[in-house]
Amino acid sequence: MPSTSVEPTGQATGQTVLIIDDEPTARVALAARLKRLGYRVLQADDGKAGLDMLRRERPDLTILDWMMPEMDGPSFCEMVRQDPALLSSQILMMTSNDQPEQIAEGLARGADDFLSKAASKYEITARVQAGIRAAGLIKRLEDVTAEIRRKQDTLERELQSAARYVESLLPVSGTIGPGVEMVRVYRPSLGLGGDLFNVVPWNHDLLGLYLLDASGHGVSPALRSASFATFLRRESLVRHVGSSDPGAILTEANKHFPLTENGHYFTIVFATLDIRSRTLSYATAGHSGVFLHRRSGEICWMAKPNLPLGFDPSTVYGTDVLTIEPGDRLYLLSDGLYEVPDATGNLWGQDRLEELVRTFGRRPLSEVLSGAVNEAVHWLGHEQFPDDVAVMAVEFTGC
């Protein structure tokens, strides 16, 4: 029984094919076949004209001859692959010499598929349809990518807006009380975080200072930190705690801010500076970034091992008290400053930060903080910190 072959039918619904061939007879014959299959067909008789038409019409598939005057097929492919706007174009190259070496050269220079000029009408139709399908997949992928980019741009704008809001909550460097100067640094990471610090003025001679860090990154931690900052306002603390005692404040905050469903929590250091009595009262909850740099040169890290807020509602946080002398400096900082890795994963660390502070000695606080950030950046190897960098440095001048 004789075999029969059925030519595939093109389910073309507006797809466009560009044919580039300097032989009019071959070009017109191929165009007629593709039109019968339902494709919209464009024609060009040399590579330069075809390239102009490709840029103008953006066809779904381009079929071009290898040998042409002015610009041959491989050169045409190279031009297309060098143009970002045309990079994804599907190219089917026709050749009468379909030796493996020639096919390899054409593919290397940018063709997607090959078609022998001696191919049957069935193979021609099948390869054109395959090229059209590939073009459709690429187009859908480009559409999805473009939509993702639009959403990313929108998210980035929202994150930038949220970062500006977070920064608006931070105090301005300068005099914060009689004989007390403050300098701060805030460098948010790429992912919006939840580091916040501020000054709580109890009265003329009593200042509250805190730095808190919400675990995690993104809008949620930032919003939780903003909510916590509202709790830490003077009027709120007077209502909920009725005291300026740092331990009592953290003990009460521990009840108000339990672990989230995702296990996120806060670490915090809260200090109260009594300017008149020259005493510093402080408490920490899982936060290690606080130290006192005495005028004498001594550096005292003040945190004690304990739980962050939210783990156990029955936890009671104690208050420690230190005497402050003129020239002493208090540093409250997030671990985003010193827990930065180099290229091998080694952290810059508290010891190197302490060494830098000693080296800078009595130079202005602003220079110390700038130097610390610059050294951390040098250790990191680039400008973008992996975590928020938040630092509040306070100097008791005694003036």
Task: Tell me what you see in this structure.
With 399 residues, the protein is α+β, with helices and mostly antiparallel strands. It folds into two domains: 128 residues, Response regulator (Rossmann fold, 3-Layer(aba) Sandwich); 228 residues, PPM-type phosphatase domain (Phosphatase 2c, domain 1). Helix content is 37%, strand content 24%. The chain is built from ten helices and 16 strands. The strands form three sheets. Strands 6-7-16-15-12-13 form a six-stranded antiparallel β-sheet, with helices on one face. A five-stranded parallel β-sheet has the order 2-1-3-4-5, sandwiched between helices. Strands 8-9-10-11-14 form a five-stranded antiparallel β-sheet. A hairpin with a 4-residue loop joins β10 and β11. α9 runs antiparallel to α10. The protein is elongated.
List the helices and strands and how they pair.
Layout: E1 16-20, H1 24-36, E2 40-44, H2 47-57, E3 61-65, H3 73-81, E4 91-95, H4 100-108, E5 113-116, H5 121-168, E6 174-177, E7 180-187, E8 194-203, E9 206-214, H6 219-231, H7 234-240, H8 246-256, E10 266-274, E11 279-285, E12 290-293, E13 299-301, E14 320-323, E15 329-333, H9 349-360, H10 365-380, E16 389-396
Parallel strand pairs: 1-2, 1-3, 3-4, 4-5
Antiparallel strand pairs: 6-7, 7-16, 8-9, 9-10, 10-11, 11-14, 12-13, 12-15, 15-16
